[in-house]
Predict the structure of Cystathionine beta-lyase.
Amino acid sequence: MTDKDGLLQNAGINTRLSHLGNDPFDYHGFVNPPVVHASTVLFPTARAMEQRAQKYTYGTRGTPTTDALCEAIDALEGAAGTILVPSGLAAVTVPFLAFLSSGDHALVVDSVYGPTRHFCDTMLKRLGVSVEYYDPAIGAGIETLIKPNTRLVHTEAPGSNTFEMQDIPAIAAIAHKHGAIVTMDNTWATPVYFRPLDYGVDISIHAATKYPSGHSDILMGTVSANAKHWEQLHEANITLGICGAPDDAYQILRGLRTMGVRLERHYESALTIAKWLEGHEDVAAVLHPALPSFPGHELWKRDFKGASGIFSFVLKADGPAAFKPKAHAFLDALRIFGLGWSWGGFESLAVHVNLNDRRVTKAPTEGPVIRLQIGLEDVADIKLDIERGFAAARAV
């Protein structure tokens, strides 16, 4: 370990984000690592080729560029190792495939990311894995759902679209008591605001598409494991032939350098907007864990160091028949907010949330749920844009 490595262990998050992942003097002093494009890697001898007796052997198994990003994520997560995959969804599915087999039972939080549920209900089912969805508020009560063949418990906090919190340490303790692995989708908080492996999680999952990228132009996922589960995760990744591209890894590593300061702005602006919406006449409820009024606030306050820029609110509507017309009128009137999937970029986005797939945690009944990604624009301009939406919704 160099002197710089030792200093970074105890440094502030923005200092760490500015320096983790590579040593410029490994590359003649250039600040950023080079982008190494590779499929074939040459060996000096047949014996070296036979024994793979060198650090790099083939492009799917890593390059200096992808290694630089993995080392940065390892340091942020406190992980034994990290793999890169082509999307946030792949960051969920690869560990599922790594640790689940036919005949196994998995417990998945009901407020899970929609495409994760689709994967569970289609491919995992076809592969002979049974999946049961549980209430995010279950905590240690999850023990009542554990079966002799339960091999994996998947968590996501806050939950997708409705932002339910989970008691991660309590769930992890019960899962481990029964020999199950614990995975967590930590995309909302990033390792800046929550480090899952410190709270009993075995596999930390992150859609780097979001805040690490920060510019809505890269797709990538990271999966970080503790020492007990790293080798099995890594072997599955190699077996599946899934890897992150070096150009994308370079861009994500570049995005990490400013992620801390961007998250501070997202956090501050989103919480300001959420507090404002709480008192708005057109809003039935605001779903944001950092609000004291939110049911999961105490868990968020206990475990998390901050909040990101995405939350939801319930738009008031007189009966289910008015939900979609009011939601569409609100969205169509927006000018600063874009209408688009994903989040974590510099721009504000809005989506009418579909909660029809929920099994346990049902959708709010007071009106449609609108998810907001609060970007880096000025708060005053964001508020004016939201008011345009309210005016249009009132006219329906």
